[in-house]
Amino acid sequence: xxxxxxxxxxxxxxxxxxxxxxxxxxxxxxxxxxxxxxxxxxxxxxxxxxxxxxxxxxxxxxxxxxxxxxxxxxxxxxxxxxxxxxxxxxxxxxxxxxxxxxxxxxxxxxxxxxxxxxxxxxxx
Length: 124
Description:
The chain is of the alpha+beta class. The chain is built from five helices and four strands; from the N terminus they run E-H-E-H-H-H-E-E-H.
């Protein structure tokens, strides 16, 4: 089993940085490309339970979010966030680093800014 699971989008420089940092630190990573392998609601809820950030922080409030006519105030609870991310996986903030498996015990953080990912990986 990998030390850390990284929810990764290869087009994101911050996400690539997290993988590079893990390699430099000698941390074994399971890479989950969440756009190719979208997370189901149960997995998202388990992730949100372990996330050290607020549930709303897991949602990208980017141009796509605005194009959909979404309101950030409607996505603050774990259930609301999970439902939104099941419908629109591309709105998942990235990278997300999880100590251990996605559906197991442990900690999870959003790896933004980049130094958060570095600190999380050094904690071992």
